[in-house]
Amino acid sequence: MATATLTHTAALSRLGHALSDETRTRILLALREAPAYPSDLADALGVSRQVMSNQLACLRGCGLVEAIPDGRRTWYRLADAHLAPALNDLLQLVLAVDPTCCDGACTCA
Fold it and tell me: What CDD domains has UniProt attached to this entry (predicted)?
């Protein structure tokens, strides 16, 4: 097994930050299926275009999605081909969560 480097740690931290928000998680899951325009993503996820713009900016900053100019519009896709299978693998995990824990005040210990 390879030893984790600071680069690996930083990358996992960025992914964790991205997945810590439900809207960003839903965007990543949608983009693993196919690239999309922000307006289509906003409509599909039921969020405002401003919220979508802010969340896509965050995901771009994390290096997880990339913007592709298309005339006067821009569409988005996952920035790396390894991300879709990784998200699929994460979806296969089964987590047992105490419903009284991690309710936003996260005091899990």
Answer: HTH_ARSR
Q: Would you call 68 exposed, middle or buried from its count of C-beta atoms within 10 A (0-12, 13-18, 19+)?
A: exposed
DSSP assignment letter at 91: H
Distances (CA, A) of 86 to 25, 78, 82, 90, 94: 13, 12, 6, 6, 15
| 104 found inside a domain | no
Which residue in 82, 18, 83 sits closest to 56, CA to CA? 18
For residue 52, give its domain range. 8-92
14: left (phi over 0), alpha (psi -120 to 50) or beta: alpha
pLDDT tens per residue, range 33-86:
999 999 999 999 999 999 999 999 999 999 999 999 999 999 999 999 999 999
Looking at residue 35, which CATH number applies to its domain?
A: 1.10.10.10
Confirm whether 98 is domain-assigned.
no
C-alpha–C-alpha distance, residues 61 and 45, integer Å: 21
Straight-line distance from the first to the last Cα atom of the chain, in angstroms, rounded to the nearest whole number? 28
